Each structure stands twice: as C-alpha cells, then as structure tokens.
Input
Amino acid sequence: MFDSCGASHAGKVRANNEDCFDSVPDLGFFVVADGLGGAAAGERASALTVKTLVEEVRNAEEAPTAGAVAQAIELANKRIRWEAENDPCLEGMGCTVTAAIARRDRVEVVNAGDSRAYRFSGGKLEQLTADHTWVNAIAEASGLSEAELRNHPRRHVLTKAVGAEYSVAPDTVVSEFKLGEILLLCSDGLHGVTSPDIIASTLARDGSLQDKAQWLIDATLKLGAPDNVTVMLVRHADPER
Output
C-alpha cells in the first residue's frame, strides 16, 4: 500500500553522519533520528533510538499505534541515559526523532525535537509536526518577528530530545493521508537549509521516490549543507497497481 525510500548524506561540513533512518514497510512504519550536533556519540544515540523503535514495532503482537511508538521512544530514552550514565565518554548524548505510522486513510506521527514530518498533497507542502525548540516555545509571547525568530542565536536550542531528560514525552499528530500523497520525514539538515518552496517544487517533479529523495539532498548540498541531511519519503500507492 505504501512505496518508500530513504536517503542520507553527511553534508559539506560535518566529518561524520549522525543521522539514522529505517522502516518496516509491511507495517507502515517509518522513522528518522538526528544525533545532537556537538554532543558525544550523537550517531550512537540516533542509531540506538531507531533500533529500539524498529524492534518494538516488529516484536509487538498487534499493529503499531502512536501510543506504542511513544512508549518505544521513552524506552530508547532510558537506554540512552543508561549508556551515558555508565560511560563518561557518552555523557550528553541524545537525538531528535520523528516516526510515522501510515494507514489506509491517515498517518500518525510521533516526534521529539526538530526533525520534521510534512505532507505533500495537491502541489502543496504542509508541515505536520511542531519543532521542540526554545524559539518556538517563546515565539508567541516574545513579540519578535518571524525573521528575527528565524535568525535568533538560540533558534537551534532544543526543549525536547531523546536522552536529554529522564522522560521525553513525545508529541503525536494525526493527519489525513490519501492515495497519491507523499509523506516526508527529515532531519533539520534539510528543512533548516532548503526552503519549503524548493522542497515542494522538488516533490512535484516527475520521477521515482528515489529520484525525489536524491534531488532534495542535491538541492541542500548546493546550498552548502552545513549539517547532515536525511530524508524519508512515503507515498500512498494504489494497492491494485
């Protein structure tokens, strides 16, 4: 029922790639995680989170639910903190995560941090998740303009991430997901560099999901790609095709 493709690149500045992605297509499950830049073992935190979520989804006796995925994120949070507390070299490790469960008529997205989920429908790109950042938290009360917030020195400070606290409490959003529509999961290495207009026009081009994923990464590389960039595309396909 769903076609999918994931792609990732270290970018033009970072020496290693701390992003991680995976999927369980037969269960409609897809996930992207982004290790915290500048923190110890960010790649370990993102890989552990993705591994935990995929294992929990595969081992469950029932089809995955948003509640079960949220619990799996809490489990990943505990595992990350246990490793960090037992190895001083890993202190401070953590990651952001966005996971999606695609259904016949909807998608359920669970997220913590600033990795995002978008829905592309009818030529329009809709952001489904809200970033858990300091800027977003103070945006309404600050009186600052959108441009000032976009360039604020604390715009990358997270208010929620896997491994940052003893509990992470991820958010859940439910959206329509219809035949022909595309779901995009991505790290901030994409949306922090490549504009929504460029993302939308890229997804609108004729081509396979693999082509579109590579085009998104190529567009980001052309803009400098100062961070790792990861995209996961999921298309609601015709089951009788």
